Amino acid sequence: MTEMKLESMGLYRNIGRVDADLAALGVGPDEPVRVDQLTSFDQFHYEGTAAVDDSAVALGLGPASRVLDIGSGLGGPARYLADRVGCSVTALELQPELHEAGQRLTQRAGMAGQVAHLQGDILDGPPQGPGFDGIVSMLCFLHISDRAGLFASCESALAPGGRIFIDDYFEIAPLAPAAAAALADVVHCPYLPDEATYAGHLSDAGFVDIELIDKSADWSAFVSARYDAFSGGRDDLVRRYGEPTVDELDTFYRTVAELFAGAGLGGARITARKP
Ligand SMILES: C[S@@+](CC[C@H](N)C(=O)[O-])C[C@H]1O[C@@H](n2cnc3c(N)ncnc32)[C@H](O)[C@@H]1O
C-alpha cells in the first residue's frame, strides 16, 4: 500500500480540468482528439515529451516492443510512446479517477489498440503475462517508500534483458525539517534516498548496468519556469478552471519550485537492466 492520500495532491485534484483544457483548444466533450493536442497538459513529469523521447532511445524501443508504464497518470507518456514508436504500452495507474480519465482520452485518441489501461498498485505485483521489454516510470516512485517491494515488482515484470527507465527524486543533502515536511505533505514524497542508496535498492533487486544521471539543474530550471508561466497566466486559468483549483495548483507548483531551488532535493534519470 502507498502511505499517503495521493488524491489530495494539487496536481491530482480536479481532473475535470482536462475538459476545460480541451475546450480551450476547441475540442468538445467526447469528441475525438489527437495525441499532439493532449501533450501540453497530459504530461505530469518534467521536460514534457522530450523526456519520453529520451526513454524510447534509452530502452531501445521499436514497434514490436511491449512496455509497462508504472504510474501512468492521465496516460500522456503511454499514448505518446505508442504513437511515436508504434510499440504497445500497458499503462498502470493507482488512482481510479486518473486511470478512468486516461483510458477515456486513449479511446478518444483512437489508441486503445496500442495502449491498455490498468488500475492498480505496482506494490501488489506487475500485470500477469509474458515479461515486458521495457519499463518507463516518470515521477511515480517518489510516492513509494517500499523500494524493496517496488523494485521486486519491476524486476519480475521484465523479460530477461529488459530495461527500466525512471525519472525520480533523490537526496543531494539532508533537507531542513520544513523542506522535508513540504516534500512529504505537499508533494507526497515520504522517502528520499541518496544516489548510492538508490543504486543499492536496484542492485539488491537483481538489476545490473545501473546508471544515474543527475537532472537536478535541468529540472530546477524547468519547475521554476513552469511556476512563472503558471503565475503569469493566472487570470486566464482562473477563468478556465475556477479559483479554488488554481489555488491548489499554485501551492503545488510553487512548493516544487522552492524545493528544487533549495540545496537538498535532486532529480535523477535512472536506467538499469534485468540480466
Ligand atoms: C507525477 S504523476 C506522473 C504521471 C505520468 N507518469 C506522467 O509523467 O504524466 C505520478 C503518478 O504515479 C501514480 N502512482 C503513485 N503510486 C503508485 C503505485 N503504487 N502504483 C501505481 N501508480 C502509482 C500516481 O497516482 C500518479 O498518477
The total of helices stands at: 11
Compounds present?
A: S-adenosylmethionine
Percent of sequence in beta strands: 15-25%
The strand count comes to 7
Q: Please give the largest β-sheet.
A: 7 strands, mixed
**Fourth-tier CATH superfamily name:** Vaccinia Virus protein VP39
- For this entry, what is the oligomeric state of its chains? single chain
What is the mean pLDDT?
Answer: 96
Stretches with pLDDT under 50, minimum 5 residues? none
Termini separation: 28 Å
Total domain count: 1
Which secondary-structure class do the elements indicate?
Answer: alpha/beta
**What's the order of the H and E elements?**
HHHEHEHEEHEHHEHHHE
The helix content, as a percent range, equals: 40-55%
What is the correct CATH architecture? 3-Layer(aba) Sandwich
What is the approximate shape?
Answer: globular
Q: How are the strands of the largest sheet arranged?
A: 3-2-1-4-5-7-6
Task: Explain this structure.
With 275 residues, the chain is of the alpha/beta class. The protein has a single domain (6-273), classed as Vaccinia Virus protein VP39 (Rossmann fold). The radius of gyration is 18 Å and the shape is globular. Helix 3 crosses helix 4 (76-85), helix 9 (216-232) packs antiparallel against helix 11 (243-261) and helix 10 crosses helix 11. Helices cover 44% and strands 19% of the residues. Helix 6 links the parallel strand 4 and strand 5 (158-171). The structure holds S-adenosylmethionine. S-adenosylmethionine (SAM) is lined by residues 2, 6, 43-45, 70-73, 76-77, 92-95, 98, 121-123, 138-140, 143-144.
